[in-house]
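In response to reviewer comment 3 from the previous cycle, which asked for concrete evidence that the modeling workflow produces usable outputs, we include below a single protein chain processed end to end. The sequence was submitted unchanged, and the resulting structure tokens are shown without manual editing.
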Amino acid sequence: MIEKITYIETANTYPYRNLAMEEYLLLHCDKEECILYLWQNRNTVVIGRNQNAWKECLVSKLEEEDGYPVRRLSGGGAVYHDLGNLNFTFLVRKENYNVDRQLNVILEAVKKLGIHAEKSGRNDILIDGHKFSGNAFYEQGDCCYHHGTLMVNVNLGELSRYLTVSKDKLKSKGVDSVRARVANLTEYAPDLTVDELKKKLLEAFEEVYGLKANILKDTDLDADEVEERTQKFASWNWIFGRKLEFQYELSNRFPWGQVTLQMQVRNGRIKDVNVYSDSMKPAFIEEVSRYLKSVRYDKKAICAELSLYWSKDKEEDQMMKDIIAWIESIDL
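The workflow returned the following structure tokens.
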């Protein structure tokens, strides 16, 4: 049961430090506490935990224009951040993790601006069918977070220039372009500022949880630990990982996300494999990779190995069944 709520915002716009602060707060959240963290990134493309940076955005163009390619801890797809976007993160322990309650803070804050919004599926918030907020989720042991974007006045032209969203994904959503899927809150509240939205979020946070928020400053955090985590998120290895010289690539879009397998095969066995996905289940995707290593590059052998997977999470079990059915249907 939540007995304490904490609010923190930062004026910092360096994305690697913002993600470092987010991870720090995740690991230092008290047992009966819920933290709301508000932050902004300047000129940044953020990819999901299991995505291929080179396939999701125009990395060279982004870096040439003083932008930042960033990999977050959570799953899901790539998003563009500029200073017209406000990011939020709810951080709690697993027993207090309640996505509906957390999203209600967002819906109530927007309602205070005279805007009616609604949830769509698990990870979008819409106004009149247009997405202004995408959400993603992460857990580490007993610690969980739910974070997302709030598009106040994002430069949609820049969004379209940097992101390379697959045609299959757009087709599955029934739209023609990245730009057609999204909208800014200023289209519905023309005078809205990021600072005004922050005020409404704090008010809604206190009302939904029925508690007065403790105000935390970024200077209250352990500077050395935050800096260490900043260096991790800014490192080439974290952002790009290893670029596998693969011989075989298989790709398919499922209702729950895109999956791409890149495999090196030697002496008839899968020597190495990268599994890329915009699925909201990053830990599951990493498990797929583990199951495939050293298996014979043979349809029956691959499916037999994957069929050994078991999870108490029924959604993950079904995802593995979907992958097996896909492998069974193709020629290797």
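Confidence is low (pLDDT under 50) at residues 169-180. We consider this sufficient to address the reviewer's concern, and the full set will be provided in the supplementary archive.
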